[in-house]
Write a structure and sequence with these properties.
Blueprint (H helix, E strand, L loop, with lengths): L8 E2 L2 E2 L8 H12 L26 H7 L12 H11 L12 H4 L46 H10 L8 H10 L3 H9 L6 H12 L8 H6 L9 H11 L15 E5 L13 H4 L8 E3 L20 H10 L13 H4 L7 H11 L5 H5 L7
Helix pairs in contact: 3-7, 3-8, 5-8, 10-14, 12-14
Length: 374
């Protein structure tokens, strides 16, 4: 008889032989995760003392072990001043042509820094054709946007400002506004050593802030990495077992990021309305390939898929249980279990899987005032 996930070894800890963790220790562990980003102590570590103060981004040891540090950002090291500037810019409507929208308008913290609307609305009322992706743990990514057209967070931060269906502005106009602002020249001087502002410094600051948007404090994390066997209920345990086994979800959504670096066609439709990666590469084999999004805080980041076609997690799970288009010639290899008829989920299996996905919610991240408007 096959063991359930609850009976299997999690790392070096076996759940069935785990001693309960004292509540005080759990509280302390939670605080460590919540305030995990801190600076290294030094004799001159006050952000207000002038100059650029290095910021050390601390992540849980299990993240560093599994995926290593965030990708290098040559010429743009994290500093307290740069992050503070990036946070202010991320939330500032000054970046848009009519002073009505900021990055945060389409990337709302309560929704995992995504947009609950199927398609975001630009400053002139125009709508795009893709849902705004969640901005979570992106420092480990090497491709951005659904079609993977940008390779760094700095490049990603550049595009929405000038996009004709988003902020509809020009960089010369943005720079002129910032340069004439009462606060920004001083903030740029503190962050970059000069009051002179340009588009590169703007996107560098925003990228610094985005690299601090870390979410690793869900109930699943308390189970998997802190040994709290009470973190999930029985239905959620069953859903976890399905996620890791018969549902094959883990094939594309791997721990601890619950995402994947590849661009994949997961059999969404026989005739692609949106060609995805192929529009960038020109390669017909890339038609229908899209970035694999993180599942962290997935219960808060509806709607789902690149075009927001599914309004609920139940709809997403039901699609993967029954409607994957297995005859596509460029269906991703990770979808072979579907191609060979190995994924057979009952209605109860589907409900259990949805219940598990809710355990990936990190309430502290979604409500942390330090990530909201300054």
């Amino acid at each position: 008889m096959r063991r359930s996930f609850r009976d299997t070894e999690l790392g070096t800890v076996t759940l069935l032989h785990m001693r309960p963790i004292h509540p005080t220790l759990l509280c302390l562990l939670g605080l460590i995760l919540l305030f995990g980003c801190r600076k290294e102590s030094s004799s001159n570590d006050d952000p207000g003392s002038g100059g650029q103060t290095p910021f050390t981004l601390h992540v849980p040891i299990w993240v560093d072990t599994a995926v290593g540090p965030q990708h290098e950002a040559p010429g743009n090291p994290l500093t307290f001043e740069g992050i503070a500037l990036g946070r202010r810019l991320f939330h500032d409507v000054l970046l848009s042509d009519d002073y009505t929208q900021s990055c945060a308008t389409c990337h709302k913290q309560a929704n995992g820094f995504s947009d609950p609307a199927q398609f975001s609305t630009g400053t002139n009322g125009a709508h795009g054709t893709r849902n705004a992706m969640a901005v979570i743990n992106l420092g480990w990514d090497g491709r951005f946007f659904w079609d993977g057209r940008r390779n760094t967070l700095e490049e990603q931060a550049h595009d929405p400002v000038t996009n004709p269906i988003e902020m509809r502005n020009t960089w010369p106009e943005v720079v002129a506004r910032l340069q004439a602002h009462a606060d920004y020249p001083g903030l740029f001087e503190r962050a970059f050593g000069t009051p002179d502002i340009d588009s590169n410094k703007v996107v560098m600051a925003i990228a610094q802030f985005e690299r601090t948007l870390l979410s690793f404090n869900s109930r699943f994390d308390r189970l998997r990495y802190m040994g709290d066997s009470s973190a999930l209920n029985e239905q959620e345990y069953r859903g976890l077992d399905i996620f890791m086994r018969d549902g094959h979800c883990v094939d594309c959504h791997t721990e601890p990021l619950f995402s994947d670096p590849g661009m994949r066609n997961t059999g969404l439709e026989l005739i692609a309305v949106d060609s995805g990666l192929a529009a960038i590469t020109g390669n017909p084999a890339d038609i229908g390939k899209f970035k694999v999004p993180t599942l962290r805080n997935i219960a808060q980041s509806a709607p789902y898929m690149h075009d927001g076609r599914f309004a609920t997690l139940e709809e997403v799970v039901n699609f993967y249980a029954h409607d994957v288009q297995i005859t596509l010639p460029n269906l991703d290899g990770h979808m072979d279990p579907w191609r060979f008829g190995l994924v057979n989920l009952s209605p109860q299996n589907e409900a259990d899987l949805v219940a598990f996905l809710h355990t990936l919610t990190d309430t502290a991240f979604l409500t942390n005032p330090a990530l909201g408007p300054p």
